[in-house]
Amino acid sequence: MASFHLAVKAIGRSAGRSATAAAAYRAGVEITDERTGLVHDYTRKQGVEHSELMLPTDAPEWAADRERLWNAAELAETRKNATVAREYEIALPVELSADERRELALGLAREISERHGVAVDVSIHAPGREGDQRNHHAHLLTTTRRLGPEGLGEKTRELDQKQSGEVERWRERWAEMQNRALELANVPDRVDHRSHQRQGIEQEPTVHMGPSATAMERRAEQVAAREGRAYEPVTAVGQHNAGVVERAGLRQYIERGTEWLRDRRHLKVCAPNNDLADISGTFGVVGLVCLSDQRELDPTPHDGGSALQGFDGDIAIGGIKHAVYLCPAGMHQ
User: Fold this and answer.
1) Looking at the chain, which runs of residues are DSSP E strands?
2) Same domain, 60 and 156
3) Alpha-carbon Rg for the chain in angstroms
């Protein structure tokens, strides 16, 4: 299930951080900080799939050198508590290919650079070896000053002010870009930058996993990978959380189908399952939800119905197959 994440963070001296260190770490390179004399060497860092600088069209040639760019960003600030860089941390859809994820991240970086006149240093990271293997993400490190022919100039104050709405605008734009990329890739999932509360959705909560349960689940994943079989949670909390995620996935799966149906009111939805009777109210405008206790479902459409194009298939919840079908109106009463 595609997920949304875009967080904007400040890189500031008050927290003991520097633009040179941040850039070196994210890109997996070595940068010497001219202001402090410190050498930030992250050339042994693994998992950096791609790094690239996105610059305004009128940027000076020297700005294409990562070390020179971020040293210039540091030297442009004189205050001991100055903000020296800004970071956009984004999640990339696991449903897309590596090339598609790269183009998506670079597309956002290009738009940020064009709108605010800043340099954007893009670093795409693979999931951690022991973490969630769906966690493809990118770091977009930007200058806090506009970059023009004469070098770094005025501060981008619009990004410092909540009332400007710029950060929320980028969150909304990132959701639009992801959804367009998912659509082009024929992936039915969609993301929404709004919180569940703003969407009017009551989200079923997961339970916090402590260190012991997390370690047990990690070992179970490793054993399953070695044995060439699908991983299944082994702790009670892990099984609970997996069920929450699967049910959320099925809800999104069905909700995306209802959107497709809005201009096809002569059709009704038949969604056989035995776990989600409580969501039947979400289908008021498109038809009927049929519930079934079948333990196994034939993936072939039944009763003359037709599989929902783009949403056909099944999803497992608690080891039981669930499917979504389109059935002619009046077929189920």
Assistant:
1) 6-12, 30-32, 39-41, 48-54, 83-91, 120-125, 137-142, 145-148, 151-155, 267-270, 314-317, 320-323, 325-328
2) yes
3) 24
**151 vs 190 pLDDT, higher one:** 151
Q: Is residue 141 part of a domain?
A: yes
Angle at Cα 54 formed by Cα 179 and Cα 72, nearest 5°? 140
Q: Cβ(323)–Cβ(253) under 8 Å?
A: no
Q: pLDDT digit string (tens) for 252-265?
A: 666 666 555 554 44
Same domain, 107 and 149: yes
Strand partners, 138: 90, 124
141-176: burial string, b at 16+ Cβ within 10 Å, e else: bbbbbbbeeeebeebbeebeeeeeebbeebbebbbe
- Mark whether 302 and 165 lie in a shared domain: no
This prediction's pTM: 0.64
Do residues 6 and 20 lie in contact, with contact meaning Cβ atoms separated by under 8 Å? no
The answer on pLDDT for 141 being more than 90 is yes
CA distance 122 to 136: 14
Percentage of the chain lying above the pLDDT 70 cut: 71
Q: What is the mean pLDDT of the chain?
A: 78
Task: Considering only residues 275 and 236, tell me which one the structure prediction assigns the higher pLDDT.
Answer: 236
**Local structure of 8: helix, strand or coil:** strand
pLDDT at 201 over 60: no
Which residue range forms the structural domain that includes residue 295? 211-328
Picking from 297, 292, 296, 290, the residue whose alpha carbon sits closest to that of residue 331 is 290
Q: Which tokens hold the place of 120?
A: 């954007």
